[in-house]
Amino acid sequence: MNDLRLWILTLATVSFFAGVAGGVIVSQGSEPAEQAPFADFERRFAREFGISGKRLEHLRTILTNYQRQVKQVEERHLAATYRDMDDDLNRLGILYGHRIRDKVLSKPDQRVRYDELVAGLPFQSTPNR
């Protein structure tokens, strides 16, 4: 009986590791190839205007630089957006923190415990009493 269990365990272990190895092999082959920025535009542009060689390299360089600078602008504006949102998010945190404390918690000892738990949070302020 123990021999049968040993064989079942061995088969299950081998099957598991074979599955893991197969998954790794398949996933490595399915990674999308890195494409140049605006690759579709580049192909259509080259076909439309019949460019190749050095001119195509210049186009690729220009599009790569353009994408890099667009990304920098997006990151800069995103960071500014997060900074702008900070005050609004803090106000909302205070407002809803007060609502939870005052509307959900009915017992004074619950409110004291809540105040202890939220002490030090960025949106924590003196509760409305």
Quickly describe the structure:
The chain is mostly helical and 129 residues long. Helix content is 79%, strand content 0%.
Topology:
Blueprint: H1 2-29, H2 39-49, H3 53-104, H4 108-118
Q: Explain this structure to me?
A:
By secondary structure, the chain is mostly helical. Helix content is 79%, strand content 0%. The longest helix is centred in the middle third of the chain and has 52 residues. The model has no long low-confidence stretch (mean pLDDT 79).
Strand count, sense and barrel status of the largest sheet are: none
Question: Structural class, from helix and strand content?
Answer: mainly alpha
Helix percent reads over 70%
Treating each run of at least 4 consecutive H or I residues as one helix, how many helices?
Answer: 4
Strand content: under 5%
Report the order of strands and helices: HHHH
Radius of gyration, taken over Cα atoms and rounded to an integer in Å: 30 Å
Number of strands: 0
Distance between the termini: 72 Å
